[in-house]
């Protein structure tokens, strides 16, 4: 399935661009901490693009990318994702549950708790982790900048060391090897080097006060802002001013324009709440919470509420901006 510009799509062709929440296929061995106690029950999903998974077992639902990747993480209560950093943008919104995000070399520089619908545009270049602090299984949806999502994950040294104690070794080729299964590093491939103390100095340690006002948007604030028009969430002129390689809008049943429209760029619809209907030249379909729909450039389509009641959606559009940014402000155009 390509993502080239098109004028029409059949029903089957559009369905191939939709990943339903109920069809998501998890990977429980996606990253180096998959055996580490406290992190060994998490599930990772790659929805659009290969993301940054380190496991050959990871299923990719849609391989072609629109300039960014879409993924998700599902975790039971008290399950933690270990401290890591990315070279490009990483944005999360909470689909379900209650989550604590923390950051810094040891995870104690700052933290924020996110509820359902909240969105966090995590600054590039800091170590970050997160855990489900709710009482039920929770899911967070992720947007990663760039077609290749920055070429992988940078782990805090203690994560690599802890993983080795539980049988997982990350090769310098970015692939995982499970010594519990008799696997070992191939000839000529060494282990992923641990960052030196000097290299660690390049990773900022921002406080909660540094991060939250500029990188977090709350669901109910966005609902209020989208009373008559979509709320601009991430972008150079948005609430969270940034240029991570994509723009993010928040729409509700009160702010969506039902008229058909056509774009020159890729658009991904990510339903947070309620049910929506997408209609295009060739068919129509409904989207439910957790569904992801990739609309190609050049396709005339409309998005409307499919049922009465509250509904909310994050809408992601590709841009020509670089797929990364700095802690101190938007990246250059």
TrEMBL record:
Domain annotation AraC-type arabinose-binding/dimerisation: ranges: 262-312
Annotated GO biological process: regulation of DNA-templated transcription
Alphabetical list of SUPFAM superfamilies matching this protein: RmlC-like cupins
Pfam families in the record: AraC_binding, Cupin_2
Domain Cupin type-2 intervals: 80-140
Record keywords: DNA-binding, Isomerase, Metal-binding
Keyword Translocase (UniProt): no
Gene Ontology molecular functions: DNA binding; isomerase activity; metal ion binding
The protein's name in its UniProt record: Mannose-6-phosphate isomerase-like protein (Cupin superfamily)
Species the sequence originates in: Rubricella aquisinus
The organism's taxonomic lineage, starting at the top: Bacteria, Pseudomonadati, Pseudomonadota, Alphaproteobacteria, Rhodobacterales
């Amino acid at each position: 399935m390509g993502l080239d510009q098109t004028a029409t799509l059949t029903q089957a062709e559009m369905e191939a661009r939709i990943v339903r929440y109920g069809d998501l296929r998890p990977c429980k061995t996606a990253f180096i901490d998959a055996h580490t106690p406290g992190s060994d029950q998490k599930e990772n999903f790659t929805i659009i693009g290969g993301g940054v998974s380190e496991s050959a077992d990871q299923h990719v639902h849609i391989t072609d990318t629109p300039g960014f990747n879409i993924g998700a993480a599902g975790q039971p209560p008290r399950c933690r994702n270990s401290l890591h950093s990315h070279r490009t943008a990483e944005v999360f919104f909470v689909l379900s549950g209650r989550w604590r995000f923390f950051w810094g070399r040891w995870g104690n520089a700052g933290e924020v708790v996110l509820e359902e619908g909240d969105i966090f545009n995590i600054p590039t270049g800091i170590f970050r982790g997160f855990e489900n602090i709710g009482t039920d299984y929770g899911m967070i949806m992720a947007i990663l900048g760039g077609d290749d999502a920055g070429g992988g994950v940078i782990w805090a040294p203690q994560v690599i060391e802890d993983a080795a104690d539980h049988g997982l070794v990350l090769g310098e080729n970015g692939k995982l090897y499970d010594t519990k299964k008799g696997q070992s590093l191939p000839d000529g491939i060494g282990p992923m080097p641990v960052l030196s103390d000097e290299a660690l100095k390049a990773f900022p340690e921002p406080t909660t006060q540094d991060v939250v006002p500029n990188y977090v948007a709350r669901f109910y604030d966005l609902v209020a802002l989208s009373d008559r028009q979509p709320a601009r969430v991430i972008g150079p002129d948005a609430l969270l001013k940034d240029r991570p390689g994509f723009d993010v809008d928040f729409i509700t049943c009160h702010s969506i324009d039902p008229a058909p429209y056509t774009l020159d760029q890729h658009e991904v619809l990510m339903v947070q709440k309620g049910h929506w209907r997408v209609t295009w030249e060739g068919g129509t379909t409904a989207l439910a919470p957790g569904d992801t729909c990739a609309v190609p450039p050049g396709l005339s389509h409309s998005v409307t509420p499919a049922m009465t009641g509250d509904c909310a959606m994050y809408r992601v559009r590709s841009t020509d901006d670089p797929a990364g940014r700095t802690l101190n402000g938007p990246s250059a155009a």
